[in-house]
Amino acid sequence: MDILLQCRIKSALLFLCVLYVPQPGHTDGPKHGIDNSICNPASITNSVTPKRPQLPSTYRVSIEANIENRNYSTDYTEYYDSVANKGATHQWFLGFHVQSIYSPGTDELFTVETQTKTCTTDTLATAGPKYIFGYQPSSSNPQVGRLYTAAGALRFGNGTNEQYMGTARVRGIIADYWKSCMYWPGMDATMEVHWYFTNTGAWDPATGKTLPSPLRCQVSGKVWSGTPHMFNHTYEFNEFRTTIGPSYPFQTPPGIACPHRKDTKPLPTPSNYFVFTAETLNIDFTSIGFIKEWYAKDMNMVRYDYQPDPGTPSPYGHDLLSEIHDFSEGIAYIQDPTIGNCTLTTISARDIDSKAVDANHVRIRTSQEFFNFDKAAYQYEGVRKVRGIDADVWIATRTDWPPGSPGQNSTWEWYFARQGWRESTGHTYVFGMPLMLSVHSDNYGSLVYNTYNFDEEKPKIWDFDISRCYNYTNRQDFAFKIPGSYQNTAALNLQGFKYNVIVAVHQAATVSALRITNVKIDYDASNILVSLTLLGTPIIRGDVNNPVTQVSLTTAATLLTNAINSNQLKISAGTGVGTQTTTLTAQPYSLKQSSHVVQKGYYVPPAKTAAYTSGAVAGLGVAMAIVFFVFGFACMYIYYRKNGGSFTKGGNDNAGFEPKKFDNESPERGDDA
């Protein structure tokens, strides 16, 4: 492809490109200067009347450019905003669609080829296409510039002499006609320019009588730079508007990254805890899924609630599942609340919250890793609408996704609500409010994650409830008293008081806070009554380095008893006076323990041997139901005991779990997206 065609397609230079590209034999010798055989600028005098059209500071216009000396046409739409200091063109040429975005504030030009979804970044001050809108470097900061005014961008009424030539018909429209003669030293080109605007006294333009619309511009002349050549261009203007419209012409298109783009706004920094709900869309398979996620880095805990895809095999069933990852021990608790099942397994290195540290161990992802901010350098693109919300957008290109497919390009775009929208939610966000993640790969399709109800408040420990994973043989109930007024302490912040109880018991019994569950608070005339359940130790070993050593349930009970009896179990509580707190002490020797006891059902039939009455028939039905219940329970109990206290096989037999995909094969360890 010759340099001229590259310029036309890649840089969208329009007629200026044709003029500006050096021709073969070009030298930096002396210039020819004004070619009087074309026209003489000195012979053009400004006309006092009629007044030249006043061009708006913002406009959008469609143009058909007919390059007559080269026998081709090109269509383009031009966008200009003097206030925002932005310009853009969309050009269609030889079947190609090229977008050029002018950013003089950062001295950048972005050229996007939509068919190939590629973008190049150039320095605007030295790029040939700067002649479309013009470029003026700032006198105080050479790295920042401005576009010409609208008159300068259209090369009309910008200090150039323009002579009124009367009226003419253009496409049947009555038009005012001006002529000028211009010389561009940079191209050593002399040209005669003919401008036509609607005559608002004789014609009503779509823009209204107060704003004449450009209709046509004819440019003919000679370029002396390189090999001298004549040129003749005609530009037909249509749909001239003074508003840009609802689109975002000054933003690069979604899903297309521009290498070497300047980073004008850093990514938000994620907090170490958050909760949100996500809607997951697989565009190519037209499938929708939902997941709710809890993340608490300082607690080493993550939780997912989701429903597996009914079309995908699932070793844990297709009911709503709740999965809790305890990275202090490296154990995943996969629970089916519908039928009460729970499976304990190691945490897979392929899970979206885990990171492999070696072939056999994992760790929790940092919040940066959780959002995949560590995988590539993100670039700020600008502002777009998401669900009607103004969003800041960042984009990155990766070559490591999906895992196991090195060298495959994918684009990742994050959308965050702008500051004003975040404030209106009533929350103060350290991180920001993520709205959407869009992932696209030519080979693997497109995925979209819409996030809702994002909350940066720290999850509660009871959000990570694993009590259904422990049967009655591996749990113990406790109750104790705390002298004091319930209304003046615990009732002021009941959830906070429960949390302080868990902290106190965790420290006294040296058990993981995850093993303290079912905390309930009651009161009598002079005491606060606390009841809770301690869970036993896990039945499997996790896959993290240096897992937390857990004491047995018996040892924990002894430690808790000793702490209470020695006045060492102390709990902080509010007082209702500002942020003032008080410390409450559990009453010595008030601890009571209880165990879960399963009572087997039985039925003793009446002694009657007479014929059955209707009541007797009903009684027999009840009896049969109880018999079948007892028989069934016995069978389940035998199975329960054979499997170590779980209705599903525990240990490491289960494959690692992935929130949106189940795989009956044991996963290989490795890094994930």
From TrEMBL:
This is Uncharacterized protein. It comes from Mizuhopecten yessoensis (Japanese scallop). Residues 479-589 form the DUF7959 domain. Residues 652-673 are annotated as: Disordered. The keyword Protein transport does not apply. Residues 253-470 form the LolA-like domain. Residues 658-673 have a biased composition (Basic and acidic residues). Residues 1-27 form the signal peptide. Keywords: Membrane, Signal, Transmembrane, Transmembrane helix. The chain crosses the membrane at residues 616-640. It holds the Pfam family LolA_2nd_metazoa.
